[in-house]
Amino acid sequence: MTDIRRLMRKKKLTGKELGIIEVSNMALDFKHQTQGGPPGNIVDLGELRRRALELDNKEQEQIYNGYLAIHQWIMLYHNKAQIHMQQAQLQSRIMTDYLIDLSICEEFRSYLRSQQANTAHTKDGSRPEAQDGTFSVPPSLRHVFDNFGIEAFLSESKGCNENIDIVREARETLLDSYYFLRGFNISIQMIGDYYEVPDVCAFCEDTRLIEELMDEFNGMSGAFHEKLTAQAQDGMEDVEEKFHISESLFYSVDYQSIKVPQSLIKQVQDSLPGFMAFTTERASSFDIILYRRKNIYKGSAR
Predict the structure, then answer these.
(1) CB atoms within 10 A of CB 30
(2) Which of 111, 117, 194, 203, by CA, is between 20 and 30 Å from 35?
(3) 236, 275 in Cβ contact below 8 A?
(4) CB distance 127 to 119 below 8 Å
(5) How far apart are CA 186 and CA 288, in angstroms?
(6) Which contiguous run of DSSP H or E holds residue 179?
(7) What is the rounded average pLDDT of the residues 261-282?
(8) Residue-wise over 240-257: b if at least 16 C-beta within 10 A, else e?
(9) What SS3 string covers 114-173?
(10) 67-97 exposure pattern, b = at least 16 Cβ within 10 A, e = fewer
(11) Left if phi > 0, otherwise alpha if psi is -120 to 50, otherwise beta: which for 252?
(12) DSSP H or E run through 26
């Protein structure tokens, strides 16, 4: 942790030292609040501004202004990171909720099928449709399967296209947000290392919750695939179409393959000297490691 109080006790400060105090003060205050403390700066901002006016040449002023730009960048992009954190959680839950509904419906379908088969056997084959692998959904339950089962994704369903779009968009948004968070953490670490403000790492986002949610989805995806395999072995109808929907929409999220390319990280590193990454002309320098490109990660779509 940067000892900014010790720095403030110096009679004369350089632009770099003032900048380090500026950014570190903001980061330490944020860390204090995340740990449950009240907001409050370690150093008096009025005193900090007064000391900044004492800088005696343009070069030192420019260095201090560079740190002010870092301060502004962190606040702006940390807000964006929090939005992406919320989006990632929301979209992963949307995918999981759809898969839960499908799984429940398939369990229910298997139960109803076995009941129909037992009834047919008891009545000496009076309901042969349950003996040859076919299954008829009772009319009173048709709306349940049409809205929450695999039927909701079949072409004859009125909401088919909308449901498919929702699931696909949820996956893409989840991956976009996860990539942004990975890139944001890398950006913060680079800033902390290069500009000697390690305390800014307090702004890094903890992605473990998102990874846990994706692991939960992946586990359910595997279980659903196993369920369909069991249905196929039992001779249930329409399993091939179900497999297609499962493999095209509800396949595992290979988030471990999402990596920010070193070549792009190097481009950002090259823009750090002289605070180039934070000038108006280069304000989007970090964007190349924050926003996912389609040619960087194509997922594991079949």
Answers:
(1) 18
(2) 194
(3) no
(4) yes
(5) 12
(6) helix 160-194
(7) 89
(8) eebeebbeebbbbbebee
(9) HHHHHHHHHCCCCCHHHCCCCCCCCHHHHHHHHHHCHHHHCCCCCCHHHHHHHHHHHHHH
(10) bbbbbebbeebbeebeebbebbeebbbbbbe
(11) beta
(12) helix 15-34
* Boundaries of every domain in the chain: 1-56, 79-289
pLDDT digits (tens, 9 = 90+) for 117-145: 777 667 656 444 444 455 677 888 888 98
The residues near 52 (Cβ < 8 Å, ≥ 6 apart) are 18, 61, 64
Specify the amino acid at residue 168.
R
Cα torsion through 146, 150, 151, 157, rounded to 10 = 100
Cα–Cα distance measured from residue 7 to residue 21, given in angstroms and rounded to the nearest whole number: 8
Give pLDDT tens digits for 200-221.
Answer: 999 999 999 999 999 999 999 9
Q: Which of 205, 208, 204, 218 lies closest to 171 in space, CA to CA?
A: 218
pLDDT of residue 300: 39
How far apart are the C-alpha atoms of 184 and 74, rounded to whole Å?
10
Helix (H), strand (E) at residue 55: none
This prediction has a pTM of 0.87
